[in-house]
Amino acid sequence: MPQNNPYAAYGNNKILTATPAQLTLMLYEGAIKFVNIAIVAVEKKDIEKAHENIMKTENIIMEFQSTLDHKYEVAKDFDAVYSYLLQRLQEANIKKDKEILEEVLEHLRTMRDTWKEVMEKTANGANLDV
Question: pTM score, two decimals?
Answer without folding.
Answer: 0.84
